[in-house]
């Protein structure tokens, strides 16, 4: 069983200190929600873990089963079992969804999946997410609607089977139907018990469908309160105001 351990993580962007000592442990089978106001550093946490070059680590460690991810290249992190669904996925003209997914599976496994097996898994994943079969031949993220982008992220999860999945605002921009399909996908995936999920969100809406085991409130670049799912209900009722005042 895998464990992600974030220890006193400090991160700067363009010489500005953003994360000011984040401590968090996520085990396989657990779902942790990170909630916080805009600009509190939630995406910075996701990008720093994933290895985005703009985010400078100024202190701390991020251990996946004891291996410090911060010392690995971006592709090595993916091979180690880390998956990041970005808040704003990039468009890649000339690369089809199907080719992208097969390359991603190949990169993570270290060998190409058999075509027939991959086609079967891809079809099963797309069916489960109510994705039109024609979608597989479209260019990656090009002209995707908000809902299509998010379904595609969950499809990646199902095919890549990471040890730790970081989902950054997977709920933003979804209508209720898409939110339900995406949430069901996350629930199906986490039911395997083999993946730890870090669900980053601004709104409590998705947490009605995906029940977190733990909720962490983020403000001013650190975790300022922690609790169980009831904390999300409190945030829904009271908002973030109390935290933003305290961290200012
Ligand atoms: P959140 O995801 O919680 O809304 P972010 O991590 O996106 O917060 O942003 C935290 C802070 O870091 C903000 O003040 C934002 O302006 C700054 N920041 C994040 N990324 C960059 C970047 N690439 N360049 C400059 N500033 C950034
Ligand atoms: Mg934001
Ligand atoms: Mg963000």
TrEMBL record:
SMART domains: AAA
Protein family: Belongs to the ABC transporter superfamily. Ycf16 family.
ABC transporter domain mapped to chain residues: 4-245
Pfam families with a match to the protein in the record: ABC_tran
PROSITE patterns, per the entry: ABC_TRANSPORTER_2
Name this polypeptide is given: ABC transporter ATP-binding protein
UniProt cross-references to InterPro entries, sorted A to Z: AAA+_ATPase, ABC_transporter-like_ATP-bd, FeS-cluster_ATPase_SufC, P-loop_NTPase
The keyword Coiled coil is annotated on this UniProt entry: no
Claim: Nucleotide-binding is one of the keywords in the record: yes
Entry keywords, A to Z: ATP-binding, Nucleotide-binding
Molecular function in Gene Ontology: ATP binding; ATP hydrolysis activity
